[in-house]
Amino acid sequence: MEKHEIRRKINSMRRMLTDLERRQAAEEVFSRLEETAAFLMADRILMYHSLPDELFTHAFLGKWGKRKRFYLPRVNGVNLEILPYDESRLELGSFHIEEPTGNDTVDPQDIELVVVPAVAYDRNGNRLGRGKGFYDRLLRNTKATKIGVGYEFQLVDEVPSEPHDVAVDIIITQNSTIIVK
């Protein structure tokens, strides 16, 4: 299947989810994440601030915000910058995503774990994003463990990959934790 076909199919399935299904899926996925050695051992974690069609991250950030150091990405041109997460320092940024404000950017090399959103994943860790390449450019510059999270239906047989694409090390859905590397 072509990238645009996968995006269309997955986006259609995400729109059909009820609020209850979204909440339950997020609870199950992030509960699985909490059990991974990568999460338990990491202190500096890059998360994403969820859009309405993504697994809801806000409750997870609130739950662990006092025990872990969370960071969020901010769009700067064609790249993502990393800034500390502080709920009081968020404003609507590019693509209608709440992003951190300030100038205290962090080097991607200082991050120990990246929780990566995507439209789809395959069992080889290949991920299909929204098509702008922001995460691929960021992930190339970090040695952090990369964990992709998503709904079970976001796990597809094959994601077409290109040389610049960066795979994830672990994929977590409501029903499975797949160790890729």
What do you see in this structure?
The chain is an alpha/beta fold. 26% of the residues lie in helices and 23% in strands. The protein has helices spanning 3-15, 19-34, 37-41, 58-64, 134-139; strands at 44-46, 69-76, 79-84, 90-92, 98-100, 113-116, 120-121, 127-128, 145-149, 170-172, 177-179. The chain is globular and about 40 Å long. The mean pLDDT is 93.
Give the tags:
7-stranded mixed sheet, 5 helices, 23% strand, globular, alpha/beta, 26% helix, 181 residues
Tell me about the largest β-sheet.
Answer: 7 strands, mixed
Report the total helices.
5
Instruction: Provide the residue-averaged pLDDT.
Output: 93
Order of helices and strands: HHHEHEEEEEEEHEEE
- Helical coverage, percent range: 25-40%
Shape: globular
The rounded distance between the terminal residues' Cα atoms is: 25 Å
Précis, in short:
By secondary structure, this protein is an alpha/beta fold. Helices cover 26% and strands 23% of the residues. The chain has 5 helices and 11 strands; from the N terminus they run H-H-H-E-H-E-E-E-E-E-E-E-H-E-E-E.
Describe the protein's topology.
Layout: H1 3-15, H2 19-34, H3 37-41, E1 44-46, H4 58-64, E2 69-76, E3 79-84, E4 90-92, E5 98-100, E6 113-116, E7 120-121, E8 127-128, H5 134-139, E9 145-149, E10 170-172, E11 177-179
